[in-house]
Every structure is written in structure tokens, then in C-alpha cells.
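Q: What does the predicted 3D structure of chorismate mutase look like?
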Amino acid sequence: MQKSPADCTSMADIRAEIDRLDKALMSLFAERWAYIDRAAELKKPAGLKADIPARVNEVRRNARKNAEKAGLDPDFYEDIWARLIQHSIEHEQVVLGEIER
């Protein structure tokens, strides 16, 4: 059963909740990755490149704004998203035949 931080009375409770959240985050990343794959499929016939700088900037700004709204360190989460974006672009570049892996 899910517990709030205040309901956790031991380190075992805390660890169980962190593990639960980590699993949920991985599921969300997997869902996001499916959209990255689909984007590459749609970009190919449209003649679009993997790296679209305007969109990259928008996603980074969104990450920063979402972190701020959640009371998180925007620099840290923008950095995480920059790595996530770069990994996604590199994957799309392979799928689109822009680079070889």
C-alpha cells in the first residue's frame, strides 16, 4: 500500500516507496520512448531531421518550468532533460539513417 512521506515510520518504508516510484518512473520513460520511436517513424516520410532545435529548446524550457512549478531545482532537471533529449535524438538519427551506430 502506498504511503506518503509523513506516513513512513522506518527506513524500510522509505526505501519501499522510493523503489515503487523508481519503477513507476521507468514505466513512464518506456511510454515516452514509444513516442520517440513513433516520432522517428513519422519524421522519415515527412523528410524531417531527428534534431529540430526549436523543439529541443521548447522541451528544455518545459522541463525547467515543470521543475519550478514542482518546487524542484530547475537547473538540475533541465540538465537531466538535456541528456534525455540528446539520447532520443541519437536514437532517431540511427532510425532515420542520419548516422550509423
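A (community wiki): The C-alpha cells above were generated from the sequence. The CA atoms of residues 39 and 80 lie 21 Å apart. The chain has three helices and no strands.
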